[in-house]
Amino acid sequence: MTPRELEAVLEATWPPAATCRAGPWLIRDGLGGGKRVSAATAAADWQVADIATAEAAQAALGQPALFMIRPGEDALDAALAAQGYRVVDPVLAYAAPVVSLAHPAPDPTAGFAHWPPLGITADIWASCGTDAARLRVMDRATGPKCVILGRHNDRVAGVAFAAIHGATAMLHALEVLPAQRRQGSAHSMLRCAAIWAQDHGATQLSLVVTAANTGARALYASLNMQIVGQYHYRMK
């Protein structure tokens, strides 16, 4: 997956409410849906003085000054650092062929892919810190999408959201209830997502995770998912 492909999948499967150009920047209106849908990115050649243009556009939306820094944007990274922006949430992207993730198939009761989401999924997300603004991000995705409700020992175990852009599915907002952790629920939900993605024409499953989340990264490595990209944010 190339950096451009990763960016396209991210934008399509976890979309902002709106975008606009402000000078050389692409400005995202996230409506409270988190950094990924609110960060500005460089869309053309820029000068240091142009940073103020992005800041003003974000302030007009009621959003903090926030930039996403992608591979090869070292000059922008340095310019923002010089203006007091700090690094926030370095992120890694993982991917693997769905055919490898879908086998062996999990127990048929381990996950239920569906859309629109059952009410209990919002309750689970809310208990894990995924609020209504992020649920609205899911609603905005226009391609094939589903919610996966995970189960273990005849109890609800967790939830995740998946959507497809082109031949790539991306998994978002994977949460496992505290009482159900370390019992294989996340593993099973990932495999359920791969089966759903395969059934809907995708050839690979991807996701993003903060570099600091070593537990999740160990899970993805155990499934032979490979790091295919990275980015980080700069925020005042």
UniProtKB/TrEMBL annotation:
Entries under Pfam families matching the protein: Acetyltransf_1
InterPro entries given in the database record: Acyl_CoA_acyltransferase, GNAT_dom
GO molecular function, one term: acyltransferase activity, transferring groups other than amino-acyl groups
Domain (N-acetyltransferase) ranges: 97-236
Protein name: GNAT family N-acetyltransferase
Organism of this sequence: Fertoeibacter niger
